[in-house]
Amino acid sequence: MNEDYPLFAQDFTGRHQDADPGGRTFRAGRVARPDSRNGSQVVSASACRSAAARLLVAMLLLAASGCARGKSAPPPQSVHWLCMGTTAAVSAPAGQSARVQRLRETVGTAFAEIERDLSIFLTNSVLNAVNAAAGDPTPVPVNIHVAAVLRHALDVAKAGGGAFDPTVGPLMALWGFRSGSVTHPPAAAAITETLERVGWRHVRLDLTDPAAPAAALTRPGMRLDLGGIAKGYAVDLAYDRLRAAGDTDFLINLGGNLRAHGVPGAGRTGWGIGVRDPFHGDRILGTVALREGEATATSGNYERFVVLDGVRYAHIIDPRSGRPVTGVAGVTVIAPTAMQADALSTTLFVLGPEAGLRLLAAFPGCQALWVLDEQPVRTVSSPGFVMR
Ligand code: ADP
Ligand code: MG
Questions:
Q1: Are the beta carbons of 90 and 250 closer than 8 angstroms?
Q2: 172 CB less than 6 Å from ligand 1?
Q3: Sign of the torsion angle spanned by Cα atoms 134, 136, 137, 141
Q4: Which domain holds residue 374?
Q5: Which of 175, 282, 318, 361, CA to CA, is 20 to 30 A from 76?
Q6: For residues 194-220, b (16+ Cβ closer than 10 Å) or e, as one string?
Q7: CB atoms within 10 A of CB 270
């Protein structure tokens, strides 16, 4: 595994980078061959093995964010820290150091709260209390965070025909994403056996009393893993708290799950987010501009993976086959909320562009870009996904 600390889903190695405006726009079905862009600062995953390196990289990457009208506009400033096994950041217009520190306090508290409740790596998390009781049909009390994330996860699971599945935990373990001890791909029989313990339909979420939600996994050995959605929820929680406090003009980032408000400074039009070229860590495919309150998330095959018998497997598993997804290198989603963007990026990675575009129609305000895992590189996007 290319990861040295495991919480939630992935490290941040510049999957999204703030970048200068300009460049190109890719539209649905068009074949695009991205080229190097001036002004972007991107570092490959292999260059970022340590937490310190990742932090440094993220700091460099976020240093020049926003879409400036004029070259003279000062870049926004950011503060970075490590959280949920990835890099967290909050940015605000230049010249607001004290304010950025205050934003970091609020955002950091929200992220820590979600990690405590939803991590599968913290034995005492609320989520793991549900996992520990798998097989017992009596629902275990959960809190509003777990209930909200699980509810959305089950909705997306249903809408996508099981492409997204919050019970993917046993498959993640089987394929070696939870320990370094797996060296060969699992046998077909082991996959079949594990699939018995996977399935969103075996989750009972009891919301009868909204003040006392509870959840149960009806089959023994089942295990919830909300790594494909929890970071998005954490970003939304932080966003809502900042807005409730009257804050404007900020960008929140948790491992490539971003949500923006306002502008990055005087003379700037909005927060511009670079979409990384999955094949060239030092390039971006283009820049997307987030509108007020919008979020973006990327799922990729290039940062977290295992190598089994010399073959590289991405950390997103198709729960219908029990095998890691192939054929897609990355999916970037723009959505009204970060939780939606996060869950959809994972779902659309599994579905691929054809079925994915059909599903996307059911999600108003959501757009997606697929980068297919082939050479020359080919991208497919929904008609409203605009990159400059
Ligand atoms: P990242 O977390 O790297 O940004 P994703 O949001 O796509 O990427 O989440 C991937 C994580 O989601 C995996 O590490 C695992 O915890 C979980 N996961 C893997 N496959 C699925 C799936 N089919 N449905 C739901 N969650 C998944
Ligand atoms: Mg996701």
A1: yes
A2: yes
A3: negative
A4: 16-97+252-381
A5: 282
A6: bbebbbbeebebbeeeeeebbbbbebe
A7: 18
Nearest-angstrom CA–CA distance, 117 and 96: 32
Quick: pLDDT tens for 94-114: 999 999 999 999 999 999 999
State whether the Cα torsion 39-45-49-54 is positive or negative: positive
The CATH number for 280's domain is 3.10.520.10
CA atoms of 78 and 296, how far apart (whole Å): 18
In this structure, is residue 215 part of a structural domain?
A: no
Q: Look at ligand 1, atom 26, and give the residue with the nearest C-alpha.
A: 228
Decide if 119 is inside a domain. no
37 belongs to a structural domain: yes
Cα(160) to centroid of ligand 2, in Å?
14
Distance 314 CA to ligand 1 centre (A): 10
Among protein residues, the one with the nearest Cα to ligand 1's atom 24 is 164
Question: DSSP state, 27?
Answer: -
Domain assignment present for 171: no
Whether the CB-CB separation of 151 and 184 falls below 8 Å is answered with no
Task: State pLDDT tens for residues 247-305.
Answer: 999 999 999 999 999 999 988 888 999 998 999 888 999 999 999 999 999 999 888 89
Torsion of CA 323, 324, 325, 327, to 10 degrees: -110
The pTM (predicted TM-score) of the whole model is 0.85
